[in-house]
């Protein structure tokens, strides 16, 4: 493919204003009326349409038949130059019963004056070029005949030509637009024979492009002569998969019909060793060689020249095709078999073709095209691009935005865009040209286009050339824009590209261009997924899932270690984000899940408490989930705190917005569906949208992106919340780092995060105004809080009637991390948090005013430091929501008027799974525990005093002891009533005794003892099997978590490809350790051959004597060596 050409342009004045208007666009497309048939060409050439061909298409009058379009050359990504709008009529040559036209295929050739080379560029989106045929009411365009010029000073009998060898077979990075050819990993030498009749012995040029991740010597010999020898340095960056050797050398051709080329590599076993292409540039005798022969002469530039062509006859034609839309027939003179014509002096290089009309082939007929007229569309707020199978669902979503958001929305198919903006040829730049039409036609920001939704998945291999994609049905998918960089960590898929619409940015690098649209993508492949995602988004827009969960945010951070070099960096960055929200938006409750604050299971390498904590937060509901740390396409972090399997099993109904500052969590253009995609594609759970990464990312560059996303999500823009698309747009336009290109929005860009729109404020506490000094919340003191619901202007919302949910927190504490993975002398990371809860409740709001009463527990910090109160309210009629906070109080002291209470909480009901449970009853291995409670003073869930937590203890085992403070919630109705619901982790079969302890706020306790029997088959229970590392390069260890410690076990591990073929199997017998996972290690080879990189399924099976197998299966990734 084309080598990246760097051109430095020094411009005295910017003329952008001349282009940023509507004059460059047709008011209507020529396709809006008449009959149109699309035709296809495979390469640059002259094509024939006979009267018979045209009759089959439905056209009868040859004189009125016209050809429109400009073929398959890739569109210029620089919009500062003049480009063709709509589809122009092409000048054709007309014979008695046929016509000829010049068609452009998908490969563009151009001459580089700086390199003195002919350079080729393949269209990365299409293998063909396209044109349209119609029958006009008037005569169609015919080529003008250019008179032969007089006064020629140069006679041209040879021409400059080029040949190319390029096979596009593989992508070594699954990224970028470059595809590479023959492998030299094991085959070190390859010979090629190139047919070049009429070659002269003038000096030519040889060009070689070759890639390798090794430092072997690369050679190119032409006709036995060594021309090129070189090597590349081995990349130090593990994410740079190879480097390119690009060399040009002069060569002297031998006269003959063929050229023999040998490409060699010196060393076996190196990774990613491939020929990209080689080109040969030479001079040839100017003759008629085939049905048509293209020719040009560098020496003719600037000279009045006479071209003399050998091998012609009376039917031979010559066309000047320098301008592909306006070719001309050259006036020629025939002398025997010698055909000549003359041209005046011209500085430009002109392209000609000599033609034998009788031997010209016809183009391929694609089919009739329905009338369309995108050029006549009025200004639109939002465009949704969807394939025909998806338009019904896309229209449902469009109508929702029209109705609920008052947006003008249009659903268009990619084919219709190609037809008017890229001559019918698939080209991602056509999407951008289409959006730019609306951008240039805007009269103000009010009618500027705002959103683009790409309603379909995409692939890095837009043309289905690689073996993995050849058989994939991509009919529902959309094109992706891939960078030319295809080898390093800065190779990206960039949806932002479609929003680079400002002419002032045309010469800027991608990361410095202004993003003019909010852009999102639905990575859907089936109609079922389309339907589910539209249902999901519309449900979110309808905002029926109200609740105090919308006050909750979670910031999760990976740990670090001496080996990965990150130490506490991930936690520091996450804590800065959390600190910003706590400081600037204290109405939200921030939950901090920093790995190193929790005990690590060193055997499995996991954080069980972080994992269970995240699962509970997601189940209870989060408005936003933010993650900083390591990750990949199948999991967040090496510790597998969240895996793709978990995501696919999500059933929670509160949908957060996800922000994942990690490596390629949402690599949507890969063949395999990524974990991030599954977050969105979970039909009723997961997330509503993701600000996420599609490629390798780095911690430090990630932080300003993450930081800006958070700020733009929560800060109002001119008094209103930003949509998700506006958040990403504002974020990208604030930064100039190249790494921002690796982030994209998965989801609907016109949707807003479901923030409560109204505010709330506390006016009095125990009748005392809160505007003065801090109020004390004393232990055992009864507190009555009153307040108001306010609109965005600060006025009381008098028609707001519903429910208020307050959460009162004790003063913040300093948490010191455990240094699980850092064993050096550096200080442990510390952060502040509000882990202890004083009160969670609910009460009523009437006419915009609310009040609630609670008693401060005896177990408080007594710190005399500031506490925190968060408020949420919902109008039960309108669904309008409000939120607020209050922190003008300190926690400390003891009330002098505390009520006397010596009775513990009443346990009104206690059962497993359902209310039919009776003491001693049988249950499954993971029963669901429920207890209904009442206490006149209130249940203690502070967690600030040892021994006063709500606990479930099974079999008097500390391992089976569970703190249930965070699982308790008050019930509406009678004061003091609440419920605790807890999914008990898997238990051993057999009879069990459990104790449930609960305390009130005066530290009176109640205990209930009950028994139950877990019934299961004789087979052991395999809780889970985890592969570490989950992304393996040298070795993987399988950890089997089971319920048979100290037992003789038979263990089997099987590895399969995604098609279900078994590739490796291992069986052994052994004794499991006490409280230890059974482990099996594997060196990633089978039969002595190393496994190929990819995603694999592994299945573990365990059994004891005379038992059935218990099995579990998961996925993991094997990287290249």
UniProtKB/TrEMBL annotation:
GO terms for molecular function: cysteine-type peptidase activity. GO terms for biological process: proteolysis. Residues 382-753 form the Gingipain domain. It comes from Parabacteroides merdae. It holds the Pfam family Peptidase_C25. InterPro entries: Caspase-like_dom_sf (IPR029030), Gingipain (IPR001769), Gingipain_N_sf (IPR029031). Keywords: Signal. Residues 1-20 form the signal peptide. This is Type IX secretion system sortase PorU. The gene is porU.
């Amino acid at each position: 493919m084309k080598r990246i050409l760097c051109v430095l342009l020094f411009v005295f004045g910017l003329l952008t204003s001349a282009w940023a208007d509507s004059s460059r666009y047709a008011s209507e497309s020529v396709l809006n009326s008449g009959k149109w048939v699309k035709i296809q060409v495979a390469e640059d050439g002259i094509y024939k349409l006979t009267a018979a061909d045209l009759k089959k298409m439905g056209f009868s009058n040859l004189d009125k038949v016209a050809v429109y379009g400009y073929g398959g050359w890739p569109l210029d990504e620089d919009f500062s130059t003049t480009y063709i709008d709509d589809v122009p009529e092409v000048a054709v040559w007309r014979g008695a019963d046929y016509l000829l036209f010049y068609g452009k295929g998908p490969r563009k050739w151009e001459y580089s004056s700086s390199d003195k080379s002919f350079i080729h560029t393949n269209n990365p989106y299409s293998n063909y070029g396209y044109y349209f045929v119609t029958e006009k009411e008037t005569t169609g365009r015919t080529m003008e005949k250019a008179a032969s010029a007089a006064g020629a000073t140069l006679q041209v009998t040879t021409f400059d030509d080029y040949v190319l060898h390029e096979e596009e077979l593989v992508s070594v990075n699954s990224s970028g637009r470059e595809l590479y050819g023959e492998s030299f990993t094991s085959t070190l030498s390859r010979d090629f024979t190139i047919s070049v009749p009429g070659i002269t012995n003038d000096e030519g040029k040889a060009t070689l492009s070759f890639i390798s991740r090794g430092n072997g010597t690369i050679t190119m010999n032409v006709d036995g002569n060594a021309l090129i020898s070189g090597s590349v340095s081995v990349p130090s960056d593990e994410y740079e998969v190879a480097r390119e050797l690009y060399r040009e050398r002069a060569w002297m051709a031998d006269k003959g019909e063929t050229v023999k080329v040998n490409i060699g590599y010196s060393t076996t076993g190196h990774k990613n060793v491939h020929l990209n292409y080689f080109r040969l540039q030479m001079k040839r005798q100017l003759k008629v060689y085939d049905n048509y022969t293209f020719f040009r002469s560098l020496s003719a530039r600037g000279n009045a020249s006479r071209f003399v062509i050998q091998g012609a006859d009376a039917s031979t034609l010559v066309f000047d095709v320098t301008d592909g839309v306006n070719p001309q027939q050259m006036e020629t003179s025939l002398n025997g078999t010698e055909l000549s014509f003359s041209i005046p002096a011209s500085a430009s290089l002109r392209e000609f073709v000599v033609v034998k009309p009788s031997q010209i082939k016809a183009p391929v007929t694609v089919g009739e095209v329905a009338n369309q007229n995108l050029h006549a569309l009025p200004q639109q707020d939002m465009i949704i691009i969807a394939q025909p199978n998806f338009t019904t669902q896309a229209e449902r979503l469009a109508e929702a935005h029209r109705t609920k958001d008052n947006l003008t929305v249009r659903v268009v198919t990619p084919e219709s865009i190609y037809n008017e903006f890229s001559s019918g040829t698939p080209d991602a730049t056509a999407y951008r040209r289409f959006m730019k039409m609306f951008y240039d036609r805007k009269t103000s920001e009010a009618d500027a286009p705002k959103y683009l939704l790409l309603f379909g998945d995409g692939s890095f291999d837009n043309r289905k050339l690689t073996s993995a994609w050849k058989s994939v049905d991509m009919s529902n998918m959309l094109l992706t824009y891939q960078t030319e960089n295809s080898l390093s960590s800065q190779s990206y898929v960039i949806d932002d590209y479609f929003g680079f619409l400002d002419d002032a940015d045309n010469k800027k690098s991608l990361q410095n261009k202004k993003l003019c649209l909010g852009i999102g993508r639905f990575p859907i492949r089936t109609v079922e997924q389309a339907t589910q995602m539209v249902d999901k988004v519309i449900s979110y827009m309808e905002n029926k899932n109200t609740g105090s969960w919308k006050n909750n945010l979670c910031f999760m951070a990976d740990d670090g270690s001496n080996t990965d070099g990150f130490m506490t960096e991930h936690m520091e960055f996450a804590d800065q984000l959390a600190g910003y929200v706590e400081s600037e938006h204290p109405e939200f409750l921030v939950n901090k899940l920093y790995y190193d604050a929790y005990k690590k299971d060193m055997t499995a390498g996991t954080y069980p408490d972080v994992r269970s904590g995240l699962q509970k937060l997601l189940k209870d509901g989060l408005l936003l989930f933010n993650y900083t740390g390591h990750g990949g396409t199948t999991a967040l972090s090496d510790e597998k705190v969240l895996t793709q399997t978990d995501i696919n099993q999500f059933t929670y109904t509160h949908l957060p917005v996800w922000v994942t500052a990690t490596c390629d969590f949402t690599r949507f253009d890969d063949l395999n569906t990524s974990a991030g995609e599954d977050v969105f594609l979970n039909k009723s759970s997961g997330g509503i949208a993701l600000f996420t990464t599609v490629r390798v990312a780095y911690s430090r560059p990630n932080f300003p992106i993450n930081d800006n996303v958070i700020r733009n999500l929560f800060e109002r823009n001119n008094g209103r919340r930003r949509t998700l698309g506006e958040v990403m747009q504002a974020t990208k336009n604030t930064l100039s780092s190249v790494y921002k290109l690796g982030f994209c929005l998965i989801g609907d860009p016109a949707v807003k995060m479901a923030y409560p729109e109204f505010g709330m404020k506390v006016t009095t506490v125990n009748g005392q105004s809160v505007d003065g000094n801090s109020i004390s919340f004393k232990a055992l003191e009864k507190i009555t809080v009153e307040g108001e619901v306010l609109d965005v202007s600060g006025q009381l919302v008098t028609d707001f009637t519903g429910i208020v949910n307050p959460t009162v927190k004790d003063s913040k504490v300093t948490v010191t991390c455990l240094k699980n993975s850092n064993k050096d002398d550096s200080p442990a990371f510390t952060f502040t948090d509000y882990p202890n809860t004083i009160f969670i409740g609910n009460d009523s709001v009437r006419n915009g005013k609310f009040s609630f009463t609670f008693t401060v527990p005896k177990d408080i910090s007594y710190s005399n430091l500031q506490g925190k109160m968060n408020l949420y309210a919902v109008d039960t009629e309108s669904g309008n929501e409000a939120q607020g906070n209050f922190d003008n109080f300190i926690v400390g002291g003891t009330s002098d008027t505390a009520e006397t209470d010596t009775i513990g909480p009443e346990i009104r009901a206690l059962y497993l799974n359902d209310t039919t449970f009776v003491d001693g009853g049988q249950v499954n291995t993971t029963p669901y525990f429920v207890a209904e409670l009442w206490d006149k003073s209130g249940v203690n869930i502070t967690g600030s005093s040892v021994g006063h937590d709500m606990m479930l203890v099974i079999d008097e085992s500390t391992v089976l002891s569970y703190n249930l403070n965070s699982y308790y919630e008050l019930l509406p109705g009678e004061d003091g009533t609440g419920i605790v619901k807890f999914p008990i982790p898997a238990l051993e079969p057999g009879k069990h005794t459990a104790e449930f302890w609960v305390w009130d706020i005066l530290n009176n306790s109640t205990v209930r003892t009950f028994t139950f029997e877990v019934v299961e088959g004789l087979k052991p229970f395999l809780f889970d099997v985890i592969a570490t590392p989950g992304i393996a390069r040298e070795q993987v260890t399988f950890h089997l978590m089971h319920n048979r410690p100290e037992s003789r076990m038979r263990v089997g591990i099987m590895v399969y490809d995604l098609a279900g073929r078994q590739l490796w199997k291992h069986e052994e017998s052994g004794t499991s350790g006490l409280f230890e996972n059974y482990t099996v290690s594997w060196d990633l080879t089978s039969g002595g051959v190393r496994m190929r990189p990819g995603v694999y399924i592994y299945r573990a099976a365990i059994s004891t004597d005379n038992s059935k197998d218990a099995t579990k299966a998961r996925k993991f990734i094997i990287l290249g060596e």
